[in-house]
Fold this sequence. Notes:
By secondary structure, this protein is an all-alpha fold. It is 65% helix and 0% strand. The chain has ten helices and no strands.
Amino acid sequence: MKKLFLTLFICSFIVTMLINQNTSASIEKKIDNNFASIAQKINKEISLRSELASSSNPYDYIQGNDDFNEIINLGNDALPYLHKKLSRSEHDGLQEYITAIAIERIAKVDLKKTSQWETAKDFNSKWKKHLASIPATVDAIASDSKVSSDEKAKRLLELGTPAIPFILEKVESGNEELFPVVIELTKGSKVEATESVKNKMEWATNNKDSFKDLKKHVVEQQ
């Protein structure tokens, strides 16, 4: 009986690993395909010498761009791959800048408000520092008894979606006043918290695994 249980456990573990690997490969492939399409469209604009091609504003190139929107729709699962793509690139051009914009859009962060960045590589450096600071920052904000709930919420929201797993840990341990932040940051994600949730601690416990890859990515920046 014990041998059967061990065999079933190992099989289950292997299946889970294969599913996770396939999911990761699928997301990375989608991101690469979308960026290839974006590059193709930009090159076409350049060859046509269009008005867009003469623009020096990177945001103009993603305006109404379906491929860019598809990357954003991948949600938080795409953040580690976008970050890796940006970090590994030897260039610091338009595509890298668009990658940085995608990271900010998905993470619901405006890093220029707190850390001014001009180039994609500059963003990459400051984004890594931002991620590395999140666990300690969440701890500090959550434990500050001199700050109102509204002010805590405001500060936590500025950390963006990578803070979700760490905020959930606080909620799970009884700090339910932070749950409105979870509701706001999970809007549009696969796992979405709502105001109708009655047992907030239980919700945090039941759903924290959905954000484990996001937590892993943040911790890896330490």
